[in-house]
Amino acid sequence: MLWDLSVAVFLVFLVWAPLGARAAGRPCLCSALAPSGLRVNCSSLNLVELPRGLPSDATELHARDNRLTSVSPGLFDGLVGLKKVTLSGNPFHCDCGIQYLRSWLLKNRDVVAAEPTCAGPSAVARRAVADLGDDHFSSCGGCGGGAYDAVVGGMLCCLIGLLLWSVRLAKRSAVTLHIHEGHSGLEADCLRSRRPKHRRRSARSEVGWESVTCRDVEKTLGDMEILPQVLDTLHKKHGGKIKAV
């Protein structure tokens, strides 16, 4: 019995300092529970936020009747052994800052003795925090909010500008085409664009270069007489500037 009392006093001493740092001289009280466990009592201490550094082996957390408007994100993540939590009696402000508490409550409703309610805004006053729908947070930004959106927007603008500059540079680029005697048997069909829209346009065309077959070209044109048509095809279909040397 004396040993158990000594252990309880030692635990209270270990957690007294960190839990009292934000309690304005009125620290949360910790007491051992039989057969095992730890109760952390932060109720009625006029707290504006729960202290960090709550003992990870806590099985009960009581924080009712304070001035809590929200719970810091991640505060409860390390308290995996909680079996009872009381948060009622706090003026929770249910704006974007309440999302973490709402998500935690939805996953741990079985350990919450009395569901905390919203004190504001007026549209959701007296409504249970866990009952807030996803549409209530539709205007809340994710991944860091406005700063993150600004950075991503700037990166996208730079990327779009780079792409536009690349397209403009490609259109201004000159292509040097060398045709030797070894290419005299080149078929006209090989010069046609392989893009789907160009193939469809070619199928609809009934006159002009589009309707000329490779066999017709071979019959009517000489070996090098195809060069002007090659240059014209590359210029019109691929939008590049062709320079013959």
Automatic annotation (TrEMBL):
Pfam families noted in UniProt: LRRNT (PF01462)
Domain LRRNT as annotated: residue spans: 24-60
Signal peptide bounds: 1-23
Membrane-spanning parts: 147-167
Residue span(s) of domain LRRCT: 90-141
Compartments, as annotated in UniProt: Membrane
The keyword Electron transport appears for this protein: no
InterPro entries, per the entry: Cys-rich_flank_reg_C, GPIb-IX-V_Complex, LRR_dom_sf, LRRNT
GO cellular component: membrane
Entry keyword set: Blood coagulation, Cell adhesion, Disulfide bond, Hemostasis, Leucine-rich repeat, Membrane, Signal, Transmembrane, Transmembrane helix
Origin: domain of life: Eukaryota
Protein's membrane topology: Single-pass type I membrane protein
A Gene Ontology BP annotation from the UniProt entry: blood coagulation
Family annotation (PANTHER family): GLYCOPROTEIN IB BETA, PLATELET GLYCOPROTEIN IX
Descriptive protein name: Platelet glycoprotein IX
Origin organism lineage: Eukaryota, Metazoa, Chordata, Craniata, Vertebrata
